[in-house]
Amino acid sequence: MPDQSIPQTRTSPEAAEEPTSAGGRGVSRRALLGTAGATGLVLGAAGGAVGYAAAPAPATPLSSVGSERAMFHGKHQPGITEGLQARGHLVAFDLAAGAGRKEAAALLRRWSTTAERLMAGEAAPHDDTDVARDAGPSALTITFGFGHGFFGRTGLEKQRPSALDPLPDFSSDQLDKARSDGDLWVQIGANDALVAFHALRAIQKDAGGAARLRWQMNGFNRTPGATAHPMTARNLMGQLDGTRNPKPTDSDFDQRIFVPASGEPAWMANGSYAVVRRIRMLLDDWEKLSVAAQEAVIGRRKSNGAPLSGGDETTPMDLEKADAKGQYVVPLNAHARITRPDKNGGAAMLRRPFSYHDGFEADGTPDAGLLFVCWQADPLRGFVPVQRKLDRGDALSQFIRHEASALFAVPGGAAKGEYVGQRLLEG
After folding, report:
1. Are 218 and 356 within 8 A, CB to CB?
2. Is residue 249 part of a domain?
3. How confident is the model over 339-398, as pLDDT tens digits?
4. Could you tell me if 69 and 137 are in contact, meaning their C-beta atoms sit under 8 angstroms apart?
5. Which of 400, 320, 323 is nearest to 2 (CA)?
6. d(CA 336, CA 353)
7. pTM (whole model) above 0.90
8. Owning domain of residue 254
9. Mind telling me the catalytic residues?
């Protein structure tokens, strides 16, 4: 779990429209936004109060959380640079037997149409379940990617990027193959659990006979507005998780996270590569440690994320600082020391994880941890070198277990009138 923080940007609501939605509804979900987007004031990542004008009767204005909207069309797909969302679903599909390029193109066209409508706060294009009828977009994002096997099944092997080669084995891996990999990947995130489930159900129904579910993982984060001010998220170990994440304001952010417009293959222009890992946290063992011992494992204060060398969360870590006995105050095997980009040849990735809890084992051990999702322009220069170094001596390793793994090529955003992956499937 590299020591990098997630940018806390939030999407702003747009002016409302009032179409009659599919399925015969009198008022669409989007219409419920009223005029909040036209005159409202959203306090961004602070999740604070929102001023809004009254919506035309009979609609009622939504709260700030409900009215937030991410855009489907754009240079990049949604769900990469947006702030952490309260609820998430990660889903992988395999193309059905006999399904090929034609069926895959039709499926991505259906999925893109559904994603565009749901992210706008509208009903699904057909057979809407009404699960999210009373809610707005709630910052919903839906992101699509292709796994290694997709290209062989569609006859597009020559278009498979070299960056999509399988990840190497790591000594800490205890991978469940049934919950790893997949031909197609969908990431769903929202700040409302019903909105997220509604999108999950619509995507699953749209798959029809073209693809079958391979695995699904459900996650969560803190709800926006639950803290007094914006802050780095905490994981289930209680640590601030991700203090040194690249930020969109960094001069080299795009270079590190996105494939350049002139990159190869051409269909991946402005896209990114997502590494997905299900990381079990051995919480019973972790919670037996004193706070001081936990801080030594991480290399940062549990209370505020400050490095053990002093300062606050954003203070650069002094790796050479020693105590009165001549010992490094940040241990040599501390997680935060090992994952620093300047100690990994500049390797960096944008982390955008969800926590998960899937119940308890028979002995009461919690099946809980992190759905680790990281984004980079090339996983061989982002994720792999950092994970190799962690594999060789990270103090955190004895308290976590990597149980599932996948790598997906996520193409750039769809232009208006396009579907995601069209440049690959119709190129």
Report:
1. yes
2. yes
3. 887 777 778 899 999 999 999 999 999 999 999 999 999 999 999 999 999 998 899 999
4. yes
5. 400
6. 17
7. no
8. 22-425
9. 241
